[in-house]
Amino acid sequence: MIDFSFTPPTAPPNTSQQHSTPRQLWNLNKLKDSNIVHQYHTTFMKNMEPLNKDIEQLHNNIQNSTILSPTLPTTIENITTCLYTNLYNTMDSILGRTITGQKQRDKFWTSELQHLVDKRERYLRLGSLLVLAVVADCCSTACKR
Length: 145
Fold this sequence. Notes:
By secondary structure, this protein is mostly helical. It has helices at 15-18, 34-63, 72-94, 102-108, 111-144.
């Protein structure tokens, strides 16, 4: 028998402060050049090597039930942060940032649209935590057999 419980956060995070900084934009049109695509892919994969090792170790720990369930949300947040950091650093170094196009986005990016994006992000995060908790619980149940 599997006993599963999940307590969602009591208050939604304050999203008004999260988006006070301008959105990050990169020169994505550089990706039309196959040499740039290859350079981007190579750099990103190299940047991901330490994170890939950490994820493999986490997977092994879950399989061996040497990781405690309360640490999983922290772990998934760390993995997400590292992934975004690697992605942004690779785009910064290979593609470079741009500031053009802000006026076009301001015309359609309303506060309602931002609210919907924030809501989607919150649900995706909660869904990821639920899946990870179920997997950890299943692994611990299977190891007890």
